[in-house]
């Protein structure tokens, strides 16, 4: 097998992983919206949905290496923010502080994860990762 074939396959797998992550983020957001707005008549359905989500989270965590440590502070994250461009996570206060500091210097912020090619981390690319936040709180 050639190196280019391996590279192509790896690239395809990374794209699939990112797409699955995006899909799970959308499903989680919808489920959280439903849970927040639903009345007591839907409690049984919501409980089943919550159990299913938690089971999926456990499988997803088992299948991937999850690091709850912020790459900026080297401390466990409290409010993990996911970068939609590179899928790396940072604690909200740390990354927002770094973005503001770099903006004041009129410079771009490079993703602090070693080896990442994302050279421009922006606030608009960050979303609160509710699933990871729950995983951290369950620990």
TrEMBL record:
GO CC annotation terms, alphabetical: nucleus; Smc5-Smc6 complex
UniProt domain SP-RING-type: residue ranges: 55-139
Pathway: Protein modification; protein sumoylation
GO annotation, biological process: double-strand break repair via homologous recombination; protein sumoylation
Pfam (any one): zf-Nse
UniProt keyword terms in alphabetical order: Metal-binding, Nucleus, Transferase, Ubl conjugation pathway, Zinc, Zinc-finger
PANTHER family named among the record's database cross-references: E3 SUMO-PROTEIN LIGASE NSE2
Record family assignment: Belongs to the NSE2 family.
Entry protein name: E3 SUMO-protein ligase NSE2
């Amino acid at each position: 097998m050639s190196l280019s074939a391996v590279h192509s396959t790896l690239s395809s797998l990374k794209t699939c992983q990112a797409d699955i992550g995006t899909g799970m983020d959308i499903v989680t957001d919808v489920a959280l919206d439903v849970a927040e707005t639903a009345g007591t008549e839907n409690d049984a359905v919501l409980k089943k949905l919550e159990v299913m989500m938690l089971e999926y989270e456990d499988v997803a965590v088992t299948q991937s290496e999850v690091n709850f440590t912020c790459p900026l502070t080297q401390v466990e994250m409290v409010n993990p923010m996911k970068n939609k461009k590179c899928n790396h996570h940072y604690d909200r206060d740390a990354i927002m502080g770094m973005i503001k500091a770099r903006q004041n210097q009129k410079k771009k912020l490079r993703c602090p994860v070693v080896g990442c090619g994302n050279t421009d981390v922006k606030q608009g690319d960050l979303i609160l990762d509710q699933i990871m936040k729950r995983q951290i709180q369950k620990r």
